[in-house]
Amino acid sequence: LSDRLGGVFDRLTKQGALSEEDVKTALREVRVALLEADVSLPVARNFIKSVEKKATGAAVTKSVTPGQQVVKIVHDELIQVLAGDSDESGELRIGTPPAPILMVGLQGGGKTTTTAKLAKRLSERDRKRVLMASLDVQRPAAMEQLEVLGKQIGVDTLPIVKGEDPVAIAKRAKTQASLGGYDVYMLDTAGRLSIDEELMSQVEAVRDVVNPRETLLVVDGLTGQDAVNTAENFDERIGISGVVLTRMDGDGRGGAALSMRAVTGKPIKFVGLGEKMDALETFEPERVAGRILGMGDIVALVEKAQQTLEAEQAERMMKRFQKGQFNMNDLKMQLEQMQKMGGMGAMLQMMPGAAKMAKQLDESGMDDSILRQQIALINSMTKKERANPALLQASRKKRIAAGSGLEVSDLNKLLKMQRQMGDMMKKMGKMGKGGMLKQAMS
Ligand code: GDP
Ligand code: MG
Q1: Average of per-residue pLDDT across 114-121
Q2: Which residues bind GTP (predicted)?
C-alpha cells in the first residue's frame, strides 16, 4: 500500500493550497486503507466526504506533497472522531456505592474475560471493593469460569446457586453488594450467537432490576460490521453507556473502532489486548487512528516538516530581533501567538535558547484578558506608530488609549514591555551562540 501511495504522492507535488483534485486523488487511497482496516463502507464514505470538505483549500506545509498533507489531515480527523467529546473519559462512573455495572454482548465476544479484567483494574488501581456475579445460566460451566477468574485475581464472586434465573441472581447480587459493603458489583450476562428476542428481554429485565450505572457492551473488535450491528441493536434495546473492543491484540487494523464511534456515538472505554487478566487498556484514539490508517510514516513525515518550518520561522524572527528590530508589529505577533498557544512559554520554547525567558514571562502571569487589552492597544496605533513606537508622544498616547478604551498607563506598560523584550532579544543575539544562548539553554 505504501508503494502505491508513494506513486500517487509523487505525482502530486504542487505547493500552496490543496486543490480539489489533490484531495480527491489522495482520498481514493485513504478510502482503500480504511476499507482494508475493516471500517464499514458507509462509515468510510461519510468520513471521506467530511474530510474532503475540510481538506480542500487547506495549506500545504513546505517540503510536503499535497497527498501527504491530506493523509495528515485524515489522521487528525480520525483522532477527533475516535475521541469524541472531551468529557467522555475512559473512566467508569461509580458514584455512590454499590454501583452496578452491567456487561452485555454476544457469546464469545469476551464478556466474562473483560468482566474479570475490569474488576481487577477497579480493585487494584482504584482500590474499590468489587463483587462479580455471573448471570449466565445458559452455557455449562460459565458461572464456574467467572469464579475461577475471581480467585485468580483476588476478587469476590457471588456464591453460585443452581437453578436460579438471571433476574433472581441479579437481585441477590444487589443485596449482597449492599450488605457486604462493596463499591461495585459487576453482572456478567449470558450471550447468544446472534441477537434474539429471548436474550434481549432477559437483559432488559436484569437492567430494570439493578438500574446499572454503566452498561458496557463487549464486542470482538475483529468482527467489523457485525460488531457495529450488534452495538446498534443493544443500544436501541438496552441502552449502552460505553463499548469495550476486545481482540485488539490481533492482526486486525481495528476499523471497527471508527465504525462503532461513528454509528453509535458511544464512547469506546477500553480495549482488550489479550487473554491475560491485565491485557486491558483505556482507549487511546491516537494509537488506534494510526493503526486504522496504517500510514504512520507519512504522518510522522508531515509532522516533522511542520516542526522544521516552525523552527525556521522562529529563527528568521530571531535574526531580526538580534539586529534590534522589535517593533509593535513584532510584539503584536508575539501576543497573538501567546493567545493561540496558551502562554508565552510555548512560543518562546520554539526559539533557540529562549527557554529561560519563557519561564520568566510565564511566571509574570499574563492572562488572556491582559493579552486582549494589549492587542487592542496595538490595533489602535497607526501603521507608522507600530513600526516606530518612538513616535508615541503624549497626544498620540491619549488618542490610542481612548481608541482602545484603556488608560495611558496601560499603554505605558505596553511600551515598556516592547522595549524590554526588544532589549532582551538583542542582548541574546549579541552574546552569540557560545554565550548567553548556551547559558539560557542549560
Ligand atoms: P463471553 O462468551 O463473551 O463471556 O467470552 P469470554 O470472556 O469467555 O471469551 C471468549 C474467548 O476470547 C476466551 O478464550 C478469551 O480468553 C478470549 N478473549 C477475550 N478477550 C480477549 C482479547 O482482548 N484478546 C484475545 N486475544 N482474546 C480474548
Ligand atoms: Mg461468558
Answers
A1: 97
A2: 105-112, 188-192, 246-249
Kindly state whether residues 265 and 213 are assigned to the same domain.
yes
Last residue of a domain, one of 282, 302, 332: 282
| Domain with 33 in it | 2-86
* CA 110 / ligand 2 centre spacing (Å): 7
123 plus 196 within the same structural domain: yes
Q: What is the DSSP string of 256-297?
A: HHHHHHHHH---EEEEE-SSSTT-EEE--HHHHHHHHH--HH
* Rounded (10°) CA dihedral 356, 358, 361, 362: -110
What total number of domains does the chain contain?
A: 3
Task: Return the pLDDT at 430.
Answer: 66
Ligand 1 atom nearest the C-alpha of 271 is: 23
**CA 56, 61, 62: angle at the middle one, nearest 5?**
135
Q: Is the distance from the beta carbon of residue 332 to the nearest atom of ligand 1 less than 6 Å?
A: no
Give the count of beta carbons closer than 10 Å to the beta carbon of residue 374: 25
**pLDDT tens column, 7-27:** 444 444 445 788 888 889 889
- Quick check: 368 and 339 in contact, CB under 8 A? yes
CB-based contacts of 411, cutoff 8 Å, min separation 6 = 377, 392, 397, 400, 401
Closest CA to 109 of 216, 186, 210: 216
Parallel/antiparallel/unpaired status of strands 214-220 and 99-104: parallel
Query: DSSP state, 343?
Result: S
Does 107 belong to an annotated binding site? yes
